[in-house]
Amino acid sequence: MGDNNGNVKSGFKNNSKKSNRILFIVHREQIAKQALKSYKNVFGRSKTYGLLSGNSKDTDADILFATMQMMSKEEVMTQFQKDCFKTIVIDEAHRTGAASYQKIMDYFEPEFWLGMTASPERTDDFDVFATFDHNIALEIRLQQAMEENLLCPFHYFGITDMEMDGIVIDEKTEIENFRFLVSDKRVDYITRQMNFYGYSGDRVKGLIFCSSRKEAETLSGIFNERGYKTKALTGADSQEEREDAIELLTKDIQVDIDGTKHGDYLDYIFTVDIFNEGVDIPEVNQVVMLRPTESPIVFIQQLGRGLRKADDKDFVVILDFIANYKNNFMIPIALSGDRTYNKDNIRRYVTEGEKVIPGISTIHFDEISKKKIYAAIDTANFSDIKLIRENYKNLKYKLRCIPNLMDFDRYGEMDVLRIFDNNSLGSYYKFLVKYEKDYKIRLSANEEKIVEFISKKLASGKRIHELEMLSRMLIYKDTLVQGMKTSLKENYNKDCPDKVVKSVVNVLTNEFPSGSGKKTYEDCVFIEKSQDGDFEISKPLQKMIHNKEFYDIVKELLEFGRYRYERDYSKTYQDTELVLYQKYTYEDACRLLNWEHNEVPLNIGGYKYDKTTKTFPVFINYDKSDDIQDTIKYEDHFTSRSSLIAISKQSRTVESEDVQNFLHAKERGIDVELFVRKNKDDKISKEFYYLGRMTTTGFTRPFIMPNTDKTAVEIEWKLDTPVREDIYQYIVNG
């Protein structure tokens, strides 16, 4: 198993000679010694063990532990026959792209290569998967490791870093105001938190991660002046110095009842990144993070320094000092293991804390830290090309080929909808054309637009009807409505009333869009009326599907959409095509409520009644900024999981038509549907939770809106279905 429960990779090479010898290659002598000790615990006296390093020159052993630096020397390597080892294990296998590792791998010819790494997803262009023939023997992530009790429980505390003289710490602080990072005031604050949250065991054995060597060395000096025993370690320190420091940190000493310590020891080691990987210090019982989160990978690596189990250690305390860092959103991504980059999911992880992590571990963010993380989430662009390309590259390396749409879900990578959401792309096809040199397919402009339409409008799977009709269209060409009805009944036990048929037809004939959307997809007309009164494939599309490459792309998109429907949207609420607690845009709601035409959000303005379908969706932004205009500063709020106070539009009285429709919805056959979103400031994720239907209690209160002369009406609602507890807590308290 790799450091911090990373991925274990293996590759196979046939070799004629049989040998039971094992070579274990590491990049630091300290790790070789730790590995040797672990192997002895397993194999005992049944094997002989040797260490080949700068300080030890063993070569003849059943299991030989060697540093890469020593083994890559020509005069050392050639002492061994190419096939003298049956198995070669490479620790920190993501390093195998380096020339020294390649030299070793080119020379030896074992039957079995085993690579172990916690960082298979690289930020450089090296493909560690290819090195091991893309054979993944085992992959285990943090959540699974916690479930299987492989790691020490942890208690994570996200703590707001302090402000000094009105200056908030961020990425520029070290350059512009380094003195604040190492000021007495900040050190007082840090040590107070360290003492308050504590550790497990007789004494603290801590690692402190800093932003720079300068910060680490300066803070170590200040801590020592205050009576702590600490040392700063950087890349400039020798292996011997590092081992000596770790020995002082982890050694057992006498600790009196009053806390007095005796002997030579260290309380903390300050470092930047040399302990991110490749070091095993099980005794660490407190990890302090005084730096921005560079990536989820680095965060987990640093967190993992304290997750090794050890005697007399029941848990490890993680203290993460959170400042105004733009990458704060990476913290909940790392802790949850969710790589879909869905903003609302990430916000909920911050709110729900320990629900994310199995077992007895806990996660807690203070209120200001939450706000800082929320702000970072709001400004982050998860459809950013750089992020998409990085996730795509990792998946391609893992698969050894261009991934298909389902691979993104199958391997837990970024939600492919993030690609569809990118305005410069709009489809996976467009992404591959732009950024994948091995992708040779090229479509016409009209074919490309059809692919984009399906990707952006239908492939999420929020309604099955269009997907069924288009799937049949690829095969049968005509009688599409009747075929869709039959298919829906047979496959999903769904009836398809006329209002739904009309809605589907409008979507597929470009009659549903409004505003600029109608012009954008003016050539996306999939079907046309046939002589028998049904619908058939449109003539332009009939020609397009003769292109097998276009046909295959559309078919894959439709299959992906059907999969997403069955996974996420098949358990519909009452007689709607909506699913409780799923998220929908304004356009989604208009389409799934079978409105004849889409309405732009400005025209909806909080709610809008559609006379044809007798549906009345209400859209509530639960968090409203303080600077919003008074005329639209409606104080909508839940009073319980099943009751809500909502405010009418401005210039309304109890006698206004919309208010009367609300009050008499039941007898008038009107369905009032509730949609709520948590954060309106996010300019990218514009989705609302669907919370079901609601009915007024009859209670109303007319009032004058603050700082205006505009009237409005407060209306009390009873939800047909109480809001699920976790969603309710997230909306109300998040």
Automatic annotation (TrEMBL):
It comes from the Bacteria. InterPro entries: DUF3427, DUF8090, Helicase/UvrB_N, Helicase_ATP-bd, Helicase_C-like, Helicase_Restrict-Modif_Enz, P-loop_NTPase. CDD domains: SF2_C_EcoAI-like (cd18799). Residues 193-357 form the Helicase C-terminal domain. PROSITE patterns: HELICASE_ATP_BIND_1, HELICASE_CTER. GO terms for cellular component: cytosol. GO terms for molecular function: ATP binding; DNA binding; helicase activity; hydrolase activity. Keywords: ATP-binding, Helicase, Hydrolase, Nucleotide-binding. Residues 1-138 form the Helicase ATP-binding domain. PANTHER family: ATP-DEPENDENT HELICASE IRC3-RELATED, TYPE I RESTRICTION ENZYME ECOKI R PROTEIN. This is Helicase conserved C-terminal domain-containing protein.
